[in-house]
Amino acid sequence: MRIPAHSVCTAVRDDIVAGVYERGSRLTEELLARRYGVSRVPVREALRTLEAEGFVVTRRHAGACVAEPTEQEAADLLEMRMLLEPLGAARAAQRRTEAHLKVLRGLVRLGQERARRGNSEDLRSLGGWFHETLAQSSGSHALTSMLTQLRHKISWMYAVEAPADPVESWAEHGAIVDAVARGDGERARALTSLHTERSTAAHRLRFSGGSERADRVRTSQPPVNMTGLRN
Predict the structure, then answer these.
(1) Which of 110, 147, 191, 201 has the fewest CB atoms within 10 Å, measured from its CB?
(2) What region does 96 belong to: left with phi over 0, alpha with psi -120 to 50, or beta?
(3) Hey, CA dihedral for 70, 64, 144, 176, is it positive or negative?
(4) Cα–Cα distance, 21 to 12 (Å, whole number)
(5) Which residues of 119-137 are buried (b: 16+ CB within 10 A; e: fewer)?
(6) Beta carbons of 106 and 170 less than 8 angstroms apart
(7) Residue 164: which pLDDT band, with cuts at 50, 70 and 90?
(8) What region, left, alpha or beta, does residue 72 occupy, with left being phi > 0 and alpha being psi -120 to 50 degrees?
(9) Residue 25, phi-psi category: left (phi > 0), alpha (psi -120 to 50), beta (remainder)
(10) What is the DSSP string of 177-215?
(11) C-alpha distances out from residue 54 to 16, 47, 75, 80, Å
């Protein structure tokens, strides 16, 4: 069965974000095809997509390589998120469905429960699901796609410190959902803007200045089982 290029793209992107491939390292079609157990055709398509997204660059005499974003480019991503997430929340207040609200409220309940228990790993995942669902609630595919791509790239470039008061942080999530449920777009925008501004302060750049460029991709990683990605 042919594995679609978007599944290969997701797998390679996830590995870039996780640091499996270092910034500046080469991404050869042969190595990637072997690692993910696919032919070179979906790998080639995936690399084109990742280049358009900014995760990959093509260099003369080197081919596809993991991008090496500058500090300014990384800072721009946080600024873009601070503008777009409040917009998404305002749109969600007007366009959300009852299904969206049910998921958002469920995530808030889980987040508040985990915050009281101090389970930081669960909170990180729940926070990502919350913001992804909030973006989907905006009813705008373009906006949702942009925010999803921003989250991937920010996760790649930044380490995020846990909130000093996770209970307060999840209370903010709950207030955003309340505003969305009431259809109060301006309050949803304002609350999300404040929440995003506070969370941005907890981001720490994973790199600074000019780092050494890796000559090749790490080859010690075991092959990836792509079976679960076949659609």
Answers:
(1) 201
(2) beta
(3) negative
(4) 9
(5) eeeebeebbeebbbbbbbb
(6) no
(7) confident
(8) alpha
(9) beta
(10) HHHHHHT-HHHHHHHHHHHHHHHHTTEEES--S-PPPPS
(11) 11, 10, 15, 15
Give the tens place of pLDDT for each residue, 181-196. Answer: 999 999 999 999 999 9
Helix (H) or strand (E) run with residue 63 in it: strand 63-66
- What's the token pair of residue 37? 């157990």
- pLDDT tens-digit series, residues 13-65: 999 999 999 999 999 999 999 999 999 999 999 999 999 999 999 998 889 99
> What 8-state DSSP symbol labels residue 21?
S
> pTM to 2 decimals?
0.81
- Residue 11's nearest CA partner among 48, 39, 41, 50 is 50
| Amino acid in position 34 | R
CB 187 within 8 A of CB 181: no
